Amino acid sequence: MPHIQTLEPHVADLIAAGEVVERPASVVKELVENAIDAGASTVTVEIQHGGMTLIRVTDDGCGIAAGEAETAFLRHATSKIRTEYDLEAIGTLGFRGEALAAIAAVSRVDLLTRTAEERVGISLELEGGAVLSREEAGCPQGTTMVVRDLFYNTPARLKFMKKDSAEGAAAFAAVQRQALSHPEVSVRFLRDGKQELLTPGDGQLKSAVYSVLGRDMALGFLPVTGSGEEMAVTGFVSRPNCCRGTRGYQHFFVNGRYVKSRTMMAALEEAYANQRMVGKFPGCVLHLTTKLNAVDVNVHPTKQEVKFSSERKVFDAVYYAVKSALEGDRTRPAAVLEPPRPHDSVTPNQTKFQTMTAREYRAMGTSADPAPAQVSSRPVRAHIPTAPERGGSLPLHDFTAPRPAPAPAPAPVRQAASPPQEERPPRPEPEEHHAPPPPEPAVSAAPAPEPEPWRLAGEVLSTYIIVEQGDKVVLIDKHAAHERMHFDKLRAEGYTPMCQVLLTPAVVTPSAQEGAVLLDNLPLLERFGFQVEEFGGGALVVRACPDYVDAGDIENTLSELAGKLLATGRADPAAARDAVLHTMACKAAIKGGQKNGPDELRRVADAVMSGAVKYCPHGRPVAIELTRRQLEKQFKRA
To answer: How far is CA 540 from CA 256, 511, 533, in A?
Structure first.
């Protein structure tokens, strides 16, 4: 049987480090918090290769005394608490005394520091937590901490690191949160030699919000000021018309500490009840100030989870402060006139004829729709392979354009592949079409039962297609059905999207979390027609997008995709891929309330009536039946 024994100190330190240092962003967070606790007025963060090869944090705080430099890297060594009673009212960002020991255990560290009382500073070099050298050094007051080769001695953790762009984005997000938590500190962030953030440090939260979240987000915010029982709430919240597709723009702080609080999140969103669109979430930068003994921050090693002595008081304080700000807003959304869209211009490999919309094409008097490759950015295009014309179908009677008579064909044609104009491999045929006939003719000669003929009777409310089949009426939700058709097409192996290159690339600025997950899934985005690159400063540049996504909808589409990837990407990559496909299929599908021609309606109806489409990607039925008996009962005829 295995024997119980004490681990080597080095192994124990590596295990403990895993609780605090998960990735480069964890190191950045801990070092910046130490700088703020040291009273720094300026903090500079530099990283290289996502922080894996270099993290340098420089501050002008109080510094570390020369005689205490080595002690600072011991576990449970701290200057912020002394007794157990100090844990009841923690007023600093750090207090555990574990961060520097954990960082030093999994990296190579250089320390350069000097206090105001000392004439010269101290330089310290550590590797794997062990001190390699110590010497005096001339340096300004404050501390410079350099962390190199993170996880060099823990390959098990190293192999789980993401790409440099994703790790760098996570580190940038950590710096942004610290800048929002302490607007009195000027925070500067450099990635691979390029400056991506600089806050003024003037003590005004609005200035920090403007620098961190950008002009558009700052202008869409409302100021919040409120006080509850023994607590106060200040900050900014977004106007209802400026809500976003994810919660990535929600930032909560308690006594200057960034936290993840379900209570505060629920209070915020409850204040927006009946004022925001379904599926949209408000953004905020909210600071809750309360008594130190009313909140417990000693819950998790990362110190981002807290417990309140009274969750109800916190909920009420946030709810009523935000509600008051929303009710006091008397502004109305400004009308925005859509400028000419440069991406609709002729691309180098298109003619003007090829960029016409389906409606413009039909207006020229052409009886057939243009081929899919000739349709531009309207979602009415049908890129889905159409089922073959059905022999025996009744003619369409309530449209002026007569339907061409179907060519006679034997019964097996009903299960044939897609028409030749689709220029992609046909769907696999049923097994009996590929395999040689079995020796018993009776088995192979039995044809599949013929489906009952149906007739396209029209459309109502510009949303539902009406089909008559025998003794019943079928109502088809055209958006749900078309969405499923696109979803199946996107999932097909070898599918290549129609990609339009933007003459003027679109620059979007997602939240830090959204930007990180998008950069981490660039191959997936490229597969579905997006060409996205990192632009610096947390922005992304989009050089191409699918032809069915309008230029004005690129940012919202990417935000939705990022939200789906954040929700499912880590748990199940296949689920993340399907979640992205759901969004892309929805964007490409024809919309309810949209006018469509008879050919487009027939394609959708054909897919549903053939049984190829039964449910939308979200599980909703695409069609319902109404029998003659049900109708007669309504009219008291039965």
So the answer is: 30, 11, 6
DSSP string across 8-23: PHHHHHHHHHHHH-SS
Q: What is the dihedral of CA 513, 515, 519, 521, to 10 degrees?
A: 60
Do 540 and 511 meet the contact criterion of CB atoms below 8 Å apart? no
C-beta neighbour count of 90 within 10 angstroms: 21
pLDDT given for residue 423 in this prediction? 41
Structural contact between residues 541 and 507, judged by C-beta atoms closer than 8 angstroms:
yes
Determine the pLDDT at residue 430.
Answer: 40
Taking alpha carbons only, the member of 206, 220, 219, 224 closest to residue 324 is 224
d(CA 320, CA 300): 29
Among 320, 308, 229, CA closest to 267: 320
Instruction: With beta carbons less than 8 A apart as the criterion, state whether 560 and 529 touch.
Output: no
Q: Which amino acid is at 162?
A: K
Which parts of the chain sit beneath pLDDT 70?
1, 6-7, 9-19, 80-89, 91, 94-96, 228, 274, 276-278, 298, 300-303, 330-451, 491-497, 568-584, 587-588, 614-615, 618-620, 638
Tokens of 391: 């022999």
Please name which of 111, 122, 188 lies closest in space to residue 145, comparing C-alpha atoms: 111
Q: How far apart are CA 32 and CA 179, in angstroms?
A: 10
pLDDT computed for residue 301 by the predictor: 66
Residue type (1 letter), 616: C
The answer to whether 382 and 603 have CB atoms below 8 angstroms apart is: yes
CB 356 within 8 A of CB 381: no
Residue whose tokens read 């549903």: 608
DSSP state of 428: P
∠ CA 251-517-241 to the nearest 5 degrees? 50
Q: How far apart are CA 365 and CA 51, in angstroms?
A: 61
Cβ atoms < 10 Å from Cβ of 96: 18
All residues at 6 or more sequence positions from 38 whose CB lies less than 8 Å from its CB, including other chains: 59, 61, 62, 63, 142, 143
For 487, the 3-state DSSP assignment is helix
Query: Is 347 exposed, middle or buried (CB count within 10 Å of its CB: 0-12, 13-18, 19+)?
Result: middle
Q: How far apart are CA 43 and CA 94, in angstroms?
A: 16
* 152 burial via Cβ count (<10 Å: 0-12, 13-18, 19+): middle
Helix, strand, coil % in the chain, rounded to nearest 5 = 35, 20, 40
